[in-house]
Amino acid sequence: xxxxxxxxxxxxxxxxxxxxxxxxxxxxxxxxxxxxxxxxxxxxxxxxxxxxxxxxxxxxxxxxxxxxxxxxxxxxxxxxxxxxxxxxxxxxxxxxxxxxxxxxxxxxxxxxxxxxxxxxxxxxxxxxxxxxxxxxxxxxxxxxxxxxxxxxxxxxxxxxxxxxxxxxxxxxxxxxxxxxxxxxxxxxxxxxxxxxxxxxxxxxxxxxxxxxxxxxxxxxxxxxxxxxxxxxxxxxxxxxxxxxxxxxxxxxxxxxxxxxxxxxxxxxxxxxxxxxxxxxxxxxxxxxxxxxxxxxxxxxxxxxxxxxxxxxxxxxxxxxxxxxxxxxxxxxxxxxxxx
Length: 339
Description:
By secondary structure, the chain is of the alpha/beta class. It has one domain: Rossmann fold, CATH 3.40.50.150. Strands 3-10-9-4-5-7-6-8 form an eight-stranded mixed β-sheet. Strands 1-2 form a two-stranded antiparallel sheet. Helix 7 links the parallel strand 9 and strand 10. Helix 3 packs across helix 4 and helix 6 packs across helix 7. The longest helix is centred in the middle third of the chain and has 18 residues. The protein is globular and about 55 Å long. The relative contact order is 0.15.
């Protein structure tokens, strides 16, 4: 839940193995933590698909002095789970990251990639994406601190964010970590706008805890340079050059084979492979605190990194874990080149 704010519906986490006793889970195993639910209090949340706006918002929203949590579920409880000790390697913990990460030891993760909801009204299956800006920013500070606590002193934190809160996030992080790059992910198949320029990018912040001690594998992510491709210049580095800070990778569109279909936001595996290759070593532990569709975990597993994730949605946690298993069982070729 949001620290310092009135309790919000969350999950009580319990270690469990095997299958959930739910008929709609019959098609796949559940290798994640089991969630124990209790009845919501009267003012504890809202239907996850409810849309708020205008007079309806004022009529249905809670009083202005009560901040909504990030996870207003149709059912749940505000108790902290018993997922304690070391992070569960090769598993996704189903729960609220503000409840899960404090149970882990400090400085136990090598690389964190965080792709939080952008607070722009997307319809996820279990939580709302339209918090009031002050509440969203307060929650952002809390999950940032939770991630930084479990990050090793020489660890790396990447954050994906949209235009709406990129500037605020940069200011928040100024006293917390060192910015190495503010990468622009330029994607093809961007949004089509009628009254303004089309948006075709997102922001990727690259932070380290210690500006002198961190992992960066330059040769693992080099791309061919213009000296090599266009000019046949003898001065060109035969290994290629490091990518610029504007990366071009296509969005994962609905018609793409890579698209999973059950999650509204999915990043391309190639983009995550570039980050993981550059900023971690084989055997390092990679954490995605918003596991979502599982892209970070797929890339980490393919690249022989240990991985762990946290995800609020039971459905997404189940399916993301299944996706990682399927990716490891299939043939693949690492291609983090992009441009």
